[in-house]
Amino acid sequence: MRSRDLEQPPADMREEYLTSRQLAQILQVSESTVRRLAHAGRIPSIRLSPRIIRFHLPAVREALDGATRHARSRRNDQDENGAQLSFTDLL
Predict the structure, then answer these.
(1) Hey, where are the domains in the chain?
(2) Separation CA 83–CA 65 (nearest Å)
(3) 61 pLDDT band (50/70/90 cuts)?
(4) From CA 46, how far away is CA 54, in angstroms rounded?
(5) Nearest to 36 by CA among 84, 27, 77, 65
(6) Is residue 10 left, alpha or beta, with left meaning phi > 0 and alpha meaning psi from -120 to 50?
(7) Residues 26-55 pLDDT 10s
(8) What percent of the chain has pLDDT over 70?
(9) Are the C-beta atoms of 55 and 23 separated by less than 8 Å?
(10) CATH code for the part of the protein at 14-90
(11) Within 1-91, where are the H helices?
């Protein structure tokens, strides 16, 4: 292998991955909420080991945006039927 192959890509080309604590601060939720959402598959995550998990912020935002749109359309359908919202509709 050449030493050039081992070099890291320029900073502007690298993808940033966040810890659950960093993501929790950005989303303004608890770290346990972030871990619970990842475990349930509601947000994408990368498990590096059984205890180390990382998150790609653009992918998480996209997943949450899609979930929000889905919840809104479901909520509109329920509003027409007079059904109440649950906590799962809010996530």
Answers:
(1) 14-90
(2) 23
(3) very high
(4) 5
(5) 27
(6) beta
(7) 999 999 999 999 999 999 999 999 999 999
(8) 57
(9) yes
(10) 1.10.10
(11) 3-6, 20-27, 31-39, 57-81, 87-90
